[in-house]
Amino acid sequence: MDTLFAPLLGGILVGLAASVLLLGIGRIAGVSGVVGELLRPGRDADSGWRMAFLVGLVLPGLVGAALWPSAVGAPDASPATLVAAGLLVGFGTRLANGCTSGHGVCGIGRGSPRSLVATVTFIFVGGLTVLVVRHGLAR
Amino acid sequence: MNLAQRGVALLAGLLFGAGLLLSGMTQPSKVTGFLDVAGSWDPALALVMVGAIGTFALAFLVARRWPTPVYADAFSWPTLRDVELRLVGGSAVFGVGWGLSGYCPGPALVSIGAGSTGAAWFTGGMLAGMAIYAWRYRGERAAENDERPQD
Fold it and tell me: Which of B109, B123, B26 is nearest to A29 (CA)?
């Protein structure tokens, strides 16, 4: 039961977070956009809420690791693979203007066809990647 | 940018991070377990999406009826409408990195807070990828003056 209830409740919390940001300050809670826009020059006027959101995002990890160490797992990949994966995720999400949160949650939640296409694409390609790595070329 | 706006953003970040932790999305094996349809499939990510999308959809219906958000002058709605090649291509590139690592940007940052070295390697690469994007598309972005959406 817990294996189904915890993800659903966690998802509702994520949706609540995005709702607070939308109804509070009219912004879309897309993590790649929040981070990526901080890396663009000349965006200083807009950086306050982005930094505050990111501080909030990191803090539960700090507390969670202390109270509930098993909540945070280690990835099954080498440091080199993780850096390469990070590069692809960073560049790809910016090119697509969104990631799992901006497209997957907020975009689909407001009925955006673009976000639906983006989400279907990254889940499909992600599935294909796992298929190749786990069951295909690597074996 | 006043204090109330930062407070709202901080609260949203806290809820977001707590939700990702509770849902198990800070365990990369849960994510690759969802993506691995040929293995023992883990439905957790689908349930997270259902809970999050359903909740946000309600807020969206409310927001459409409000003239402005509580602490800002206007809603910053995404402006792009077309399904372009870069949307599909960028999402595909993202999908490869997601499948390789089991991380997308949110859970990686929450895991950094928990001191995960794997998440730190990933996030280093991610920030570099975003910086490369910012440099590669600097001209376009300057011309558009931020009319692209912040998905």
Answer: B109
Low-confidence ranges of chain A (pLDDT < 50): 1
Q: How many domains does chain B have?
A: 1
Using a CB–CB cutoff of 8 Å, tell me whether A2 touches chain B. no
Amino acid found at A127? G
Q: Which domain holds residue B62?
A: 3-144
Radius of gyration in angstroms for the set of CA atoms belonging to chain A, rounded to a whole number? 17
Q: How far is B139 from chain A (nearest CA, A)?
A: 11
Spatial distance between the Cα atoms of A103 and A111, rounded to a whole number of angstroms:
10
Q: How confident is the model at residue B143 (pLDDT cuts 50, 70, 90)?
A: very low
Give the pLDDT score at A138. 52
Q: Considering the domain boundaries, does residue B94 fall inside one? A: yes
DSSP B110-145: HHHHTT-HHHHHHHHHHHHHHHHHHHHTHHHHHHHT
Give the CA radius of gyration of chain B: 18
* Number of CB atoms found within 10 A of residue B128's CB: 16
CA nearest to A30 within chain B: B151
Residues of A with Cβ-Cβ distance to B30 under 8 angstroms: 73
Note whether ipTM > 0.85 here: yes
Q: Which residue type sits at A24?
A: G
